[in-house]
Structure formats: C-alpha cells, structure tokens
Specification:
Helix content of chain A: 40-55%
Number of strands of chain A: 6
Radius of gyration of chain A: 15 Å
Distance between the termini of chain B: 66 Å
Radius of gyration of chain B: 27 Å
Shape of chain A: globular
Shape of chain B: globular
Number of helices of chain B: 23
Oligomer: heterodimer
Strand content of chain A: 15-25%
Order of helices and strands of chain A: EHEEEHEHEHHHH
Strand order of the largest sheet of chain A: 2-3-1-4-5-6
Largest sheet of chain A: 6 strands, mixed
Chain lengths: 191, 574
C-alpha cells in the first residue's frame, strides 16, 4: 500500500510526558485510516522524565520512519526550545508550528527560515489547552492548528476521526475541544 | 485486517499467532512492551498463554527454556544488557536439543538511547553459533516472530530475534491473521537490482529501510544494488558472492561490524570495522546519506547531494534550554536523595540502574555499573576505606525492582562479612523507569491478577539484616536524622544498615498535594533549590533573578521548602 508520489515527513518535538507520542500516533492514524501508508518512530526510555523527545513520522512512498536533516516538510514544536533544537530538520518551503506565548522567537532563526521560504506559525497552545482546564492537552491545539492548513491526509476531518478513534470518555471530550479551538485559531490566522 | 502498532506489539502478535504457550520477561527499554502485547493478544484470541514478569532475565530465560525442554512453545524477552544476566543459561545450553520451541528476543539499543552501553546481540549469537534474525520494520518483526517460533520447533534449537529500538518503537499498520494462519513474507537477498557494479550495499535491520529511503531521495535506487540480510547468523553464502561481484561494498548494520567481519574482505568492503563509518552509534539518515554520497563520488557515480548545514550551525549558536531527563515533580526519590546528600555531603554514593540513576545531578549517585552493582561496590569501598582507617560514610541506593532483581546475594554477602554501609532502598512500589511493571512486592501478575506479595523488609531480615528503618522520604528532616543515626550505629554495631524510603510513584498514583508553595515571595535568588533539588517545576527567571514555580507541573508536595534557605529558617523556628 505504498502511495506513489505522495511523501510527507514530519518531526514532532517536545518534552517527555506531554503527549508527543500521542500526537504522532494520531498523525499516523489519520493517514492509515485513509489507506495512505505511514510509519513513525518514537523515542522513549527516559521520555516520561521531562527530557527532550522527538517522534518522527513519514507518510506516503517511504520505507523507514527516519527523517534526515533538512528533510522535514513539517516541524511541530510542542515547546519553543524543542522547536529551536530541531529546526535543522526543516526543509526549504517547509512548515513550522511553535507552541509559545511569545509574539516572536529567536530573530536569527526567524530570518533563516524566511530565507528558506519556511512558513512559520506561532501559537499559544498551552493557553488554548489551559482554557479547557487541560494543561497537558496543548498537543491537541497544535494538531488542530495543523489541520487548518488542509494538508492531505492531515485534514481537520481525518485528524478528528483519529482522535475519536483513539480516545475515550472525558479525555476525548476535553481533547476534542482543544483540538477544535486550535483549528479555529488556525482559520483566524490564515484568513 | 491491519492494526497500527509498535514493533514490540508486532512481535507479540507474531508469537500469539504462532501458538506461543509460555512467555517470560524482565522489563527493560526497548523490550518492555512485548510481554504486555502478548497478554493483550492472548486475551483477544482467547489463547491460553502463560505470561509472567520474572524477577530477572536469567529467571525469565530459564523459565521459558524449561518449558521448551518439556515440549512447549516458549519465548523470553529482554533488552541487550539483560541477555548478559541470562548469559550462563544462554551459553551452556546453546546446543542442547529442545522438544518444543524456544525464541529469545533481545532488543538492542544503538545510540544508546536508554542504556549505558550499546551492545550487539548479533555478535553474541555469531560467537555462540545461534541463529539470529535482524528485522527491518514492525511488520517484518511480526513475521519473524511467527516464523522463528515455528522454525525452532522444527530444528529443535533456540533462535534469537534481535530488533533495535527503531524497530521496537516504530509504529506502522501490521496485518493480523487468525492464529496459525499468518502469511509470512520474509525478504532476504538482492532487493534492489541496480545497474552499476562499481558500488553495492549490504544492509540489515532498520539500516536497510533507511538506505532504501536515502537511495530514493538521491535518485540512485535503480543504480546501486542493495542486498538485504535478515538472518545474520548463519549468514547466507550468497552475501559473499554479491560482495565479490562489486568493486566496492558498503555495509550498513547496527551496532557492531558483524556482517562486515564475516565478509572479511578489507579491500572492497566499507563499514565500521575498516573505519569508514564510526565504530559506534546509530546509523542515522544523515550518516547513511553521507556514506553513500561519498562512496558514489569515489566510484565516479554521479550524485546530487547539496546538504544545507546552515540551519544546523545556527541552532548551535542560539541559546536553547538544555533538557536532560529529570526525576518528576514531587518524585519521592528526589526528596530522599536530597536528604542523603544533606546528611553526608562527603559520602561516597554507589548508585544503581532505574529512575534513581537520575540521582547523579543531585550529587547523590557517584557510580552506576549494572543492576545490583550499588551493593557490591559499596562492599568494595568499605574494604578499602576500613583498611586505610578512613571513616567515609557509604550510602548505596537502589530501587525496589532492582532489589529483587540482582541485590539479594550481594546483600547477604555484605551482611555475612559485616560490611558497614548504609543501604537506601528507594521503594516506590513499581518498576517506574520501564513503564510501571509490577515487582515481587506489588503482588500482581503480568495479567493483572492478584498474587502473593513478597515484602522487602521480611526479605532483608531473612538475609540477616537486623537494622532496618522505614522512612517517608517527604519527611526530609527525619530521613536526614535516620541516616545520621545509621552511620553512628555502624561505628559500633554490625552492617549493613538498611533504610527503606517508601512512597508511591507519582506517575502511578497521579497524586497532587496541597502544600502552599510560596518560594517566589521569599526568593533571594541564591539558586540553591535549582542546584540541589533540580525539580522540573522550579524555573529560574534570569531577568527577575528569582525562582518561578511552574504551576502546571508542580504537584505541591512542598519538599522544595526544605531546600530554600529563607524558607527553612522559618520552618526550623516553628
């Protein structure tokens, strides 16, 4: 079930114990459920102890889950410093989404990304999650925002379906709300 | 039907479909999820599979081996350094005939990501002449598990599966079959033909999958032939024939040079042994890409590879918060380590392997060798210090799972020889580092059923330890006093002296507390809490020169109040 032509490489970068692995699983889910091949590689071990965690996801005509430097179409920074740490994975014309409460991140990085025509979005995902009383759900806000960009197969509908498939009960309710608020925020910014 | 799962679950699935009857394991990253996977799939398939967490890898090995000797289909699971613990059994019975089938899964950790060392299980299999498979993806790992359990039954020999963490922890859709009906597709041999005879690749495991992606990116997939090795030992003679048909051969394998050494052809073979690739570490996408590019250029094969290093160089120049792993907010171990260091800053602290290895940044762990090493090393230190007439306190720390895993003979030995040191057992009621597996004390089986609980203090007493204190690590002054008393006692009484620091793991209990944390109000910017307590909830605001509490992470245990000089003064005067 290799999907000829299509290939999306994503890096999910964050801190251990805060939903990086769940986010990457949802990305894979949303592809696989649409019959698009996807594979991901998680790093854990000490990941629940607040260390840096990255999860790599590749979708489409690929064999391995490993992403090279300068090869990621999308870099999801679930935390600002983890975004900066992994910024070299981003390819030219890629997309970067950063969870931060600042209105701008390191100037040198921003300039370098602009030079490479990277689309960079800053999003206070923590705040969006906190508003629902779910600090740990900022990953959902980031995914919601990503879904507003309408990249197949990582669309709003597909990701939402994946969340409903993966989560249950109260967890589902709250997470879905945060996801939708992230999505709406995306639509606002993109207007 | 497909299901999204990690490689470890895929291995479990393969085993269950192949009719596994007995499974035993000791948890260790990257192998820990295989046994829970077997438990889950056995329930779903209504299969009677005996599953158990063993006290250590050797026991797991022998339990499975015993069942296999009798005629059952058995498997044991561990991480690469766990196989060292099972080594006597592995070594002694490698060529004994079994009646059933016996598969050993030993997960390697290139990098290493969550181990002290890299170690290549394939090397050990080669050395001991045991058949060994090196799967390249979760899907293949499921097929290999199914195939190996059946092959072992036919050949009457043990078989090893060696996945690396990139296989164990990769996630992809894996096809499910009814038990006994799996359509196994094992791929080995010339996978991708290629036009040139100038350069070819031999690759196994995850390195094979990465090599295919790199060749696709570089537009070389039809140019360079690729030979995939799945069974590393015994190695098919065709690999040698393939290598001999080429001018240059690049060997991509993790972690040691096993295939490369077998090819024994230093003229045309490029790999880790001849120094072309680094002798250690993961073969990342970039390492493989550079290796292929450079050999192509040497061989006159045209290749487009413009690497943009500017972003990487840039990210090195900016200020990024370092994020080493830390004990969780409110972790009882942190409080105990703090007390240990406070009681005797000049002590020597032999440590052990688990979450509590993270006592290193707290200055309460000096040595980490292997599981159980804390106790025997403490014994060794005592010998030296007492001979030199130096009264240096020795505070050895270990966890509850490690206590049962590897420490009992060492403790008994230390008691018999009256070694005077303090043994601090950090008991949080679970095997926390590897994902909350039960310990013998927990009294729960791998399937979640109730079983007999073995008490740490009763075991200590049976080993001859008379001096045992149980403390709540959250009562830091009390712990400090107890440690001081223990040291005092050891001057006259017998050793070792055991202190059990007991409080549940917060990851497991998810508890929060209600102590008022008002450090921000009294903070003078001395940073003592940051330096000696290292809690993830404490952040230092460089602009305001004050500590800030991350309220989202803080569990309000209040332990940091003991650490703050301004606060402690007030506490002392109460």
């Amino acid at each position: 079930m290799r999907s000829k032509g299509l290939s999306i490489e994503i890096i999910c970068a964050g801190i251990g114990g805060r939903g990086v692995l769940l986010a990457s699983t949802l990305l894979i889910d949303s592809a696989v459920r649409k019959n698009v091949y996807a594979i991901g590689s998680d790093e854990y071990g000490m990941s629940q102890r607040g260390g840096s965690v990255i999860s790599q996801v590749k979708i489409g005509n690929v064999k391995s889950p490993i992403v090279g430097k300068g090869r990621a179409d999308i870099l999801l920074g679930f935390e600002e410093s983890e975004f900066l740490r992994n910024v070299s994975y981003l390819k030219k014309k890629g997309i970067g989404i950063v969870n931060t409460n600042k209105s701008e991140i390191d100037r040198k990085v921003t300039d370098a990304l602009k030079e490479r025509s990277v689309r960079l979005y800053l999003l206070d995902a923590d705040e969006i999650a906190r508003r629902e009383g779910l600090f740990l759900a900022s990953n959902m806000a980031v995914l919601g925002f990503l879904s507003s960009l309408g990249i197949e197969p990582l669309t709003y509908e597909n990701l939402k379906e994946a969340i409903i498939y993966r989560l249950q009960g109260k967890m589902l309710e709250g997470n879905l709300k945060v996801f939708e608020n992230g999505y709406r925020k995306g639509l606002e910014i993109l207007k | 039907m497909n299901e999204l799962m990690i490689g470890n679950y895929a291995i479990a699935r393969g085993f269950v479909e192949a009719g596994l009857e007995i499974a035993a394991a000791y948890p260790g990253t990257p192998s820990s999820e295989i046994l829970p996977g077997i438990v889950e799939f056995s329930k779903r398939e209504n299969a009677e599979i005996h599953c158990e967490w063993s006290v250590n890898e050797r026991v797991a090995y022998e339990v499975a081996y015993g069942a296999a000797l009798y005629g059952k289909k058995a498997a044991c699971m561990m991480k690469q350094v766990g196989l060292n613990v099972a080594f006597p059994a592995f070594y002694n019975f490698k060529h004994h005939e079994i009646k059933g089938s016996f598969v050993i899964v030993s997960c390697d950790d290139p990098g290493p990501q969550s181990s002290q060392t890299e170690q290549d299980t394939r090397m050990l299999c080669t050395f001991m002449d045991v058949t060994c498979f090196d799967p390249s993806s979760p899907k293949e790992a499921a097929d290999v598990a199914y195939f190996a359990l059946r092959l072992s039954f036919e050949t009457k020999r043990p078989i090893v599966i060696r996945p690396t963490h990139r296989v164990s922890h990769s996630r992809e859709a894996v096809p499910l079959y009814r038990p006994g009906k799996r359509r196994v597709r094992l791929k080995e041999g010339l996978i991708s033909k290629g036009k040139t005879a100038k350069l070819g690749i031999v690759a196994s495991g995850m390195s094979f999958s990465v090599a295919i992606d790199v060749l696709t990116e570089l537009n070389l997939i039809r140019m360079i032939p690729v030979y995939k090795v799945l069974r590393v030992h015994p190695l098919d003679t065709k690999v040698k024939e393939f290598a001999q048909s080429l001018q240059k051969v690049l060997i991509l394998e993790e972690t040691d040079a096993v295939i490369e050494a077998k090819l024994n052809d230093s003229k045309r073979v490029y790999g880790r042994l001849n120094g072309f690739l680094s002798g250690a570490g993961e073969l990342t996408y970039d390492v493989i890409k550079e290796a292929i590019t450079s050999l192509c250029r040497d061989s006159g094969i045209e290749v487009q590879n413009e690497i943009d290093y500017a972003l990487e160089d840039l990210s090195k120049t900016i200020n990024i918060v370092p994020r080493p792993p830390k004990l969780c907010s409110g972790c009882p171990h942190r409080a105990c380590f703090y007390a240990m260091r406070e009681a005797f800053p000049e002590a020597i602290f032999p440590g052990d392997i688990g979450c509590y290895t993270l006592g290193i940044p707290l200055g309460a762990v000096d040595t980490v060798v292997d599981m159980g090493g804390s106790v025997s090393l403490a014994s060794g230190f005592y010998n030296v210090f007492s001979k030199e007439n130096r009264n240096i306190p020795i505070l050895a720390s270990l966890g509850d799972s490690t206590f049962f895993h590897a420490c009992l003979p060492a403790i008994y030995d230390a008691r018999k020889k009256n070694k005077k040191f303090i043994l601090v057992i950090l008991d949080n009621g679970t095997t926390a580092m590897t994902g909350m597996q039960p310990t013998p004390q927990t009294g729960i089986t791998a399937k979640g059923e109730k079983s007999r609980s073995i008490s740490i203090e009763a075991t200590l007493r049976a080993l001859g330890i008379e001096n045992i204190r149980i403390v709540d690590p959250y009562d830091i002054p009390f712990v400090i006093n107890t440690i001081k008393e223990a040291h005092h006692h050891l001057q006259k009484g017998e050793g070792p002296f055991a202190i059990i620091s007991r409080r549940e793991c917060l990851l497991l209990s998810k508890r929060r507390f209600e102590v008022k944390i008002d450090l921000e109000e009294v903070c003078t910017g001395c940073k003592r809490c940051i330096r000696y307590f290292d809690c993830p909830s404490l952040e230092f605001d460089e602009k305001e020169k004050k500590v800030k509490i991350n309220r989202d992470l803080c569990v309000q245990c209040g332990n940091c109040l003991y650490v703050c000089p301004a606060k402690r003064k007030r506490l002392d005067s109460l």
